[in-house]
Automatic annotation (TrEMBL):
Protein name stated in the entry: Peroxisome biogenesis protein 22 isoform X1
Record keyword Transmembrane helix present: yes
Tagged with keyword Transmembrane helix: yes
Short name of any one Pfam family annotated for the protein: HAD_Pex22
TM spans (from-to): 39-57
Organism of provenance: Rhodamnia argentea
Annotated Low complexity bias: 72-95
InterPro entries hit by this protein: PEX22
GO BP, sorted A to Z: peroxisome organization
Length: 273
């Protein structure tokens, strides 16, 4: 039944193709110059659609014969005389195989293209062109200015996202420090990690201050599209001045404003891990 329906549809496509061939030949014989690029594009697109439909509906004769032979051999070895059941089973298996094959072709043809990390970053940042970000707890492993007096370590998991941001955003990094040695340790850690080699971020865009309010002042002066911070008080203070903010915190807080988002880390916000 399924085979008859497919044959009828194939014959219909052939007749329709012959009809179109006559029509197109008449059109071309009248005046080829009167057809514009859109008409030719429509004809080409229709031809591709017909070919694709034909390939989907084409019945694989080889596998069907092999399936029938295997079913017949199985029936004869078991001593069952029912040829009707064998034919019905073979037809059902073949039909299922054809349906799966057609579905696989369609799924492969329409399989969505996975976006790149750069595309995800641009989408998440809503095409924002300027970003400010604190260092402690976001870019660096350390979480307090006291720890920076001993060492500064760049989180390896955040590097890929950070470099993607610098490709199309004007990025400023900032942090509260207790002494000049802490500043040097931070710059050395960033340089060693290769943050400055991409060309999107320079040392002059790494800002230091002595208070949390000083960081808030930096952000307000720079007027970024996004600010990334771990301090809930700073995030709350800047909510009415900055278009978007990302609050990096291990504990998901209650959303205080519609323009404030939260995530356990910068890289998780962009889905890179």
């Amino acid at each position: 039944m399924a085979e008859t329906s497919k044959d009828e549809l194939v014959q219909l496509i052939r007749k329709f193709g012959a009809y179109l061939t006559v029509k197109f030949s008449n059109i071309f014989s009248i005046s080829l110059n009167n057809m514009n690029s859109r008409s030719l594009g429509a004809i080409a697109g229709f031809a591709v659609a017909v070919v694709f439909t034909w390939r989907l509906l084409r019945t694989p004769r080889g596998p069907q014969r092999r399936i029938q032979k295997r079913q017949a051999a199985s029936s004869s070895s078991s001593g069952l005389p029912s040829q009707t059941n064998t034919t019905s089973t073979s037809s059902g298996v073949c039909s299922t195989s054809e349906d799966l094959r057609a579905q696989n072709v369609v799924d492969e043809f329409f399989q969505p293209v996975k976006p790149t990390l750069g595309q995800i970053v641009r989408q998440k940042l809503s095409e924002g062109r300027k970003v400010t970000c604190r260092l402690l707890g976001v870019i660096l492993e350390e979480s307090s200015p006291e720890e920076l007096q001993k060492q500064a370590t760049v989180r390896s998991s955040v590097l890929e996202v950070l470099l993607e941001i610098t490709k199309f955003c004007d990025l400023y990094l900032m942090e509260r420090v207790l002494d000049d040695e802490s500043e040097k340790k931070i710059l050395q850690a960033l340089e060693y990690a290769g943050v400055f080699t991409s060309g999107g971020l320079i040392k002059e865009k790494v800002l230091f201050c002595s208070t949390e309010n000083g960081r808030s002042s930096f952000v307000r002066q720079l007027e970024p599209d996004w600010h990334i911070d771990t301090n809930p008080e700073v995030v709350s203070q800047l909510a009415r001045f900055i278009k978007y903010q990302l609050h990096v915190t291990p504990i998901r807080p209650e959303r205080t404003a519609s323009n404030v988002f939260s995530s356990p880390s910068l890289e998780q916000f962009f889905g890179s891990i």
